[in-house]
Design goal:
heterodimer, A: 373 residues, alpha+beta, Butyryl-Coa Dehydrogenase, subunit A, domain 1, Butyryl-CoA Dehydrogenase, subunit A, domain 2, Butyryl-CoA Dehydrogenase, subunit A, domain 3, 3 domains, 4-stranded mixed beta sheet, 11 helices, 10 strands, B: 388 residues, 4-stranded antiparallel beta sheet, 3-stranded mixed beta sheet, 12 helices, 9 strands, 46% helix, globular, binds flavin-adenine dinucleotide
């Protein structure tokens, strides 16, 4: 057993930290929340140049070799700085779906473009029921003249408005579990995208498919067999999300702890009050448990071990713990933390958004229970 | 990072498991239960001496002191196996005092004590608490006066568990009452059979016994002083960091029993385990057990890398014991009124163990440093928050 990063991993972390501290300030994050595109193309290209987009992509597709663990280190830093933009939907969810199920031709065409930052992807599975189950997917795909015609509505699709490709989960037969994944070009006729206004200013979209024609070769994986792929991608994405969350939690600690050491009331630092200390001790316990559960799950994915149980354990725990940690942070900081200009609010909102993505704590506890019973 | 046991450790753990399976008797389980999982009873000694002859009580000690020269990870894993199997698991000599002797004791002291400890031949009881000194160990009052080559000890200890079955007392006493707080205390080893020692039982609400220990001009050989005189508080703090390495597996076993019960018990025409609320609760425990496992082995990782666990030990002790109480309370909820039936009672389920563990778990967040003290440590040492 070993709980340490390698020295290379420490260097990775530091270099990502340095770049984002410079380019992705609280100011930038606020601007991007207002901005329609929601990210800086310049920073995107810089990250691509540094190879950040290539971390999950095998060398033969112009990537740097699949390394989920190292990716989790980068994602932590992105979470620390609240990096806005389609990195997660493209590199993590999109990339994972292609890696999991893509044909050689599909991978050869798309993965190099992900790796080089030329292609952005979004994964569209949620619909009006807002559930993570195959039954919740109603958007239908009918076969006609060697094509599939997709009709229906997807909700809460991340960054669809800037994506080149949308991976769409559609129902291909009446059997409740028959889901198929399609690669749709965003500019295809019949796709209409509308931005939704969200609490955290992240870019979620409604995507309308109005008789969108998609050639059969754009099926990702096999016909009717999309759900198991999607499930795997969602679980790995959940772990990746936990990496982002634990990075965010780290930043909250960096905001809160120095503050309670410096702020004085009743003639002493508020951090000397035991009720404040105990809240802070709970925060440290939340973050350390979150981190190790996340690293363990990422490590298992990286090594090719079974990871489903650990992924659900980690997302359930992180979903609750990150929210509680931010709430405790707000409590011990007091009024100033409630001000828009104070960065804590960025994390408050993102903690809730992340909690609800890829399954919340109740959802993953149920999946853990399925493993037990 | 790497979260697996090495192949070598896996192999040893397999041997440990089959040894425990082969050698555990109902008498041993009953005695362990009655004593509250401490070491020192007749059955326990028989079992542990055989167990320890494999080096398994102290696998991370050097071979010359009866260890195997293996990792702290293995040590931690073996302790979990023991806890899960309901054999004795609280070892003051091997797991609390021993590491302090190893770090701070003189060569003679190491030679005299470590091998016996590693072989399970002797057990200590922990002699810190006094009536006026609980969380605040700087308030100790028991005196040890150096006279020639021996200390003369007088005073009173309380809550000194295992003193009625152990051989020696791991005693914290004042050697310089005039010194500043923390600077007048020493650690020494006293023979519990010495004339002038009087051990009186204190019965707990869990049924097992702890003790008051009275010293009336008791002679303790000067060579039994641990490390340097008046440095005791520092040694004691680092010993506590080992003590706080808390194997949770005894409660994990209770959890497994509850899970099995939920699967096999039918209410309203279906297994209890189909109830979504029950599922949520039990899954939450499973999650916390996993988080605890990672905090626990982090401590071993630290020891293997030459560090003494510090606030990290407090965090694990805190997290584990709160999880233990979550497990027992959840078990009481799921078993309902059956949970209250005592062992041997009509209608008792799970051999009446639920109510017993529920009672026992109360003290987990109190001894070895209360949860409040652990949070103080995490805040002050882990986050470096100001103390005033
Ligand atoms: C069954 C049992 C077995 C034990 N076995 C042993 C043993 O073998 N050897 C041994 O030496 N001791 C043993 N103890 C003693 C145990 O370690 C103490 O009970 C424990 O440290 C707490 O001390 P106390 O009971 O005096 O409570 P107190 O110290 O009086 O604490 C009472 C309350 O005040 C709180 N409090 C105290 N100080 C602070 C502070 N600074 N900040 C915030 N809150 C504070 C505590 O958290 C607690 O909630 C045992 C105790 C029990 C009950």
């Amino acid at each position: 057993m070993n709980y340490d990063f390698t020295s290379e991993q420490n260097i990775l972390k530091e270099s990502a930290h340095k770049l984002l501290a410079k380019e992705c300030t609280g100011q930038h994050v606020r601007e991007m929340a207002e901005d329609e595109q929601g990210f800086s193309l310049e920073l995107w290209e810089q990250m691509a140049e540094l190879g950040w987009m290539s971390l999950l992509i095998p060398e033969k597709y112009e990537g740097s070799g699949v390394n989920f663990f190292d990716l989790s280190i980068f994602l932590s830093e992105m979470g620390y700085h609240c990096l806005p933009g389609p990195f997660f939907s493209t590199v993590v969810s999109g990339g994972l779906a292609l890696l999991e199920a893509g044909s050689d031709a599909q991978k050869g065409k798309i993965l190099p473009d992900i790796s080089n930052g030329r292609c952005k992807i979004s994964l569209a599975w949620m619909e009006e029921e807002g559930r993570y189950s195959p039954e919740g997917i109603k958007l239908g795909a009918r076969k006609k003249n060697g094509h599939f015609i997709l009709s229906g509505k997807k909700l809460f699709v991340p960054d669809a408005h800037v994506s080149d490709i949308i991976i769409c989960a559609a129902r291909t037969s009446d059997d409740l579990k028959s889901i198929t994944l399609f690669l749709a070009e965003t500019k295809a006729k019949g796709i209409r995208i509308q931005l939704l206004d969200t609490m955290a200013g992240d870019k979620q979209c409604e995507v309308l498919f109005d008789h969108v024609e998609i050639p059969e070769e754009n099926i990702l994986g096999e016909l009717d067999r999309g759900w198991p792929i999607l499930k795997k991608v969602l679980l790995k994405s959940a772990v990746a999300k936990c990496a982002e969350m634990s990075g965010g939690a780290e930043k909250v600690m960096d905001l809160v702890i120095p503050y309670v050491k410096g702020r004085k009331q009743f003639g002493r630092p508020i951090g000397a009050f035991q009720s404040v200390q105990h809240q802070c001790a709970n925060m440290l316990t939340y973050i350390e448990t979150m981190k190790y559960l996340m690293y363990q799950a990422a490590w298992r994915i990286d090594k090719g071990f079974s990871f489903e149980k650990e992924a659900s354990i980690c997302k359930a725990w992180a979903s609750d713990s990150y929210r509680k940690l931010v709430a405790l942070g707000h409590q011990v900081i007091g009024g100033v933390g409630f001000m828009e200009e104070y960065d804590l609010q960025l994390y408050f909102k993102r903690a809730k958004a992340a909690e609800q993505l890829f399954g919340d704590a109740d959802f993953h506890r149920e999946w853990v229970a399925r493993g037990m019973f | 990072m790497d979260f697996h046991f090495s192949n070598e450790d896996k192999k040893t753990l397999k041997e440990v498991r089959s040894f425990i399976k082969a050698e555990t008797t109902p008498e041993l389980i009953a005695e362990t239960h009655k004593l509250g999982h401490i070491y020192g009873g007749k059955e326990g000694r028989r079992f542990i001496r055989k167990f320890a002859s494999n080096g398994w009580l102290t696998p991370n000690w050097p071979e010359e002191y009866g260890g195997l020269g293996r990792s702290a990870v293995l040590n931690a894993a073996i302790r979990e196996e023991m806890a899960y199997a309901s054999v004795p698991v609280v070892f003051v000599a091997a797991h609390m005092a021993g590491p302090v002797i190893m770090h701070f004791g003189s060569d003679e002291m190491k030679k005299e004590w470590l091998l016996q400890i590693a072989r399970g031949e002797i057990e200590f009881s922990l002699g810190y608490t006094e009536p006026q000194a609980g969380s605040d160990l700087s308030a100790l009052d028991i005196r040890a006066v150096l006279k020639g080559d021996r200390f003369i000890v007088s005073g009173q200890k309380s809550f000194n568990t295992a003193s009625h079955v152990a051989d020696y007392h791991w005693l914290a006493a004042l050697t310089d009452p005039d010194a500043k707080r923390y600077h007048g205390m020493s650690l020494m080893i006293a023979d519990l059979k010495s004339p002038g020692i009087d051990i009186r039982p204190m019965t707990t609400m869990a049924g097992w016994q702890t003790n008051e220990v009275f010293y009336n001009d008791v002679e303790v050989p000067g060579k039994n002083l641990v490390g340097e005189i008046n440095h005791g508080f520092f040694y004691l703090m680092s010993a506590l960091d080992y003590e706080r390495m808390y194997p949770l597996a005894a409660y994990e076993k209770v959890f497994d029993m509850i899970v099995k019960y939920a699967k096999e018990t039918i209410t309203g025409g279906q297994p209890v385990s189909k109830n979504p609320i029950v599922r949520q609760k039990l899954a939450q425990i499973k999650i916390q057990l996993e988080a605890n496992r990672l905090l626990y082995y982090r401590l071993a990782h630290m020891v293997d890398h030459g560090q003494i666990p510090n606030y990290q030990a407090s965090m694990q002790k805190l997290f584990a014991t709160e999880t233990a109480q979550l497990i027992t309370n959840t078990g009481m909820e799921i078993l309902g009124p059956y949970s209250q039936m005592k062992e041997g009672s009509k209608h008792a389920v799970l051999s009446g163990q639920m109510e017993n563990y529920y009672r026992t778990s109360v003290v987990e967040t109190i001894y070895a440093g209360t949860s409040e003290i652990q949070r103080n440590i995490i805040a002050l040492r882990g986050l470096k928050l100001p103390s005033k």
